[in-house]
Amino acid sequence: MTTAEVVILAIVEGLTEFLPVSSTGHMILTEAALRMQNAPFNKLFIVNIQFGAILAVVVLYRKRFFQSLDFYFKLFVAFIPAAVFGFLLHKHIEKLLSSVYTVAISFIVGGVVLIFIDRIFHQQIEDAATDSDTEEIDEVDEFGIERKKEVLKRININFVQAFIIGCCQCIAMIPGVSRSAAAIVGGMSQKLNIKRAAEFSFFLAVPTIFGAAALELKQFFDHSQFGITGDNISDLIWGNLISFVVGMLAIRFFIGLITRYGLKFFGYYRIIVGVIILILMATGHKLEIPD
To answer: Alpha-carbon distance 254 to 206, whole Å?
Structure first.
């Protein structure tokens, strides 16, 4: 990989991982635009620079992420559907990962869904605008005096809700379908406001992306005859560092935007990009990833 390819892919990953626009779809489009070869390390790089993005979540939300053991159990339950379907359908999913046409159709369909989602869950969007990140609880100090204490507000979710959100996330195994959007919509269907649904989708990304990256790493070493070189390691380090920094900026931007305006603007964006891709393909432009 060239330095330019490393930087561009890492920026795209950091920008799109947590936005409801499909990071996988954008990475496929970027590969096609750069005319990158469908090489084993390229696939490994694209999956593994997601580590930088999930580290951005852990750093930004460290006080809320490291909370109770009960929360981790719920996160694990939400992760189970993706782990099962990802393992069973891995080979079928890989066949779709070079299809720009699939991405374009998914962009358009997903965009239409996001526009209507704002109307269906308008109450969850309105509630987010007044939802404070902290709450007051009653606490008895060492002298037996009851006092008010301000603490970070936790995401109120049970195991059934977590599992349903995890099932919704599995739709994103289709290239071009956003994992973030699927999990957010799943969260709002379970009565979370859009802000808390987005935060849970961030947390759910940690085990989901870690699992996908670990599986891709295993596949790489099972089938690659060359292993990872020193240059490859350097590419992975820089790729993760860039996606980490860009991911932190993207998360802050995203939360502020959806709290005020919902998801519809991302829906319009997806439709416009999807239509442009189909027009380019129809007019003879080659957007497929070379073998």
So the answer is: 18
CB-CB contact of 187 with 206 (8 Å): no
Closest listed residue to residue 53, CA positions, set 76, 73, 89, 24? 24
Q: Three-state SS string across the chain, please?
A: CCHHHHHHHHHHHHHHCCCCCCHHHHHHHHHHHHCCCCCHHHHHHHHHCHHHHHHHHHHHCHHHHCCCHHHHHHHHHHHHHHHHHHHHCHHHHHHHCCCHHHHHHHHHHHHHHHHHHHHHCHHHHHHHCCCCCEEEEEEECCCCCEEEEEEECCCCCCHHHHHHHHHHHHHHHCCCCCHHHHHHHHHHHCCCCHHHHHHHHHHHHHHHHHHHHHHHHHHHHHHCCCCCCHHHHHHHHHHHHHHHHHHHHHHHHHHHHHHHHCCHHHHHHHHHHHHHHHHHHHCCCCCCCCC
What value does the mean pLDDT take over residues 2-30?
88
Confidence of residue 223 (pLDDT cuts 50, 70, 90): low
Q: Please provide the average confidence, as pLDDT, over all residues in the chain.
A: 83
- How many angstroms separate the CA atoms of 203 and 54, rounded? 8
pTM: 0.83
Model confidence band, residue 162 (pLDDT cutoffs 50, 70, 90): very high
The residues, any chain, with a CB within 8 Å of residue 38's CB and separated by 6 or more, are 98, 289, 290, 291
Residue 228: band (very low, low, confident or very high) from pLDDT cuts 50, 70, 90: low
- pLDDT recorded at residue 128: 81
